[in-house]
Amino acid sequence: MQLTMEHVHPLPLRPRRRSHWLRLTAFCLLVVLLVAGVAAWMASRRLEPWLRARIVDELGQRFQARVELDGFHVWVANGLWVEGQGLRIWPPANVVGAAGQAASQPLLRLEKFRFHTPLSYKPGKPVHITTVQLDGLTVDLPPKSVFATANAGPANHASPAAAHAPAAVFPSYLHFQVDTMECNRASLTLETSKPGKLPLTIPISFLRLTKNGDSGTLGFEAQLTNPRPAGQVRTAGNFGPWKTSDPGETPIRGQFRLEQADLSTISGIAGKLDAVGQYQGTLRDLTVGGETRVANFSLQHFGTEMPLRARFRATVDATNGDTWLQPVEATLGSSHFRAQGSVVRVLQDGSAIGHDVHLDVDVDRGRIEDFLRLTSRGTAPILTGVTEMKTSFDLPPGQEPVHQRLHMKGNFVLADALFTNPKIQSRIDELSARGLGKGKAVDPETRSAMTSSFTMAGGAINLPDLVYTVPGATIQLKGNYGMDAGTLDFAGNARLQASVSKIVGGWQGDLLKPLDRFFSKGGGGTDIPIRIGGTRENPDFGANLGPFKFDSAQHASHKH
Question: Which among 123, 442, 453, 463 counts the fewest CB atoms within 10 Å?
Answer without folding.
Answer: 123
